[in-house]
Amino acid sequence: MTLMTKGQFAAHRGVGKSAVSNWAAKQLLVMGECPGTGKLLVDVERTEARINTRIDPTRGRPAASLPMVAPPAADEFGDTAEPALAGRSVAKVRAELAEENLITLRLKNAERAGELGPRIELNRRGAEMGRVARERMQAMFRAIAERLAAERDVRNVMAIGSAEIDRVFAELANDVEAGKLAEPDEPDDAAVENEMEAAAAEV
Question: Cα 30 to chain center, whole Å?
């Protein structure tokens, strides 16, 4: 972790001190505590990572989507002072740093434990889950269609439908927890034969 004063960071980025003051007002600066002096200085790596994703590279200014706040006067603070840390206390900044470090550690531990997966794989699983849920809902309605058609009371129809929907999603949740949806569902042969027989009978 590299720590710099705001003046040093301005020179490092090739901008004026007013630009750094503007970033501070936008809460784009990430502060770190100097081990030797205990002062809060700019954490260069983390601040640059935040700035690079939040500023307009053609102008060096925060993107238009960010709330525009007038930069504080440069003579209100020195190079090592933060302009009230955008209303935040030193203790709050330190607490935020500790929380970020804790989150980073937890993510690393989860990655080592194999609890995290590639985004593309999660997207694939989400799509597969939607397909399975749709097919099971369709199968459920086919199974109770005649029962619903025989009902004359709308309240009974709603009660039957709600109970069956709850049952389908409870079974789906149990299958997910048991890891039974790792492979795509194969169509049930008996169900397919029943549907074919029903279609033939209608003809």
Answer: 21
Please state the pTM of the whole predicted model: 0.36
Give the Å distances, CA to CA, from 50 to 43, 55, 84, 190: 11, 9, 20, 58
Helix then strand then coil, % of the chain, to nearest 5? 65, 5, 30
Specify whether the backbone of 30 is left (phi greater than 0), alpha (psi in -120 to 50) or beta. Answer: beta
Which residues 6+ apart lie within 8 Å of 144 measured at CB? Answer: 160, 161, 164
pLDDT in tens, 94-120: 788 888 888 888 877 777 776 676 778
Residue with tokens 């590639």: 118
Tokens matching residue 140? 């459920």
Name the helix (H) or strand (E) containing 33: strand 31-33
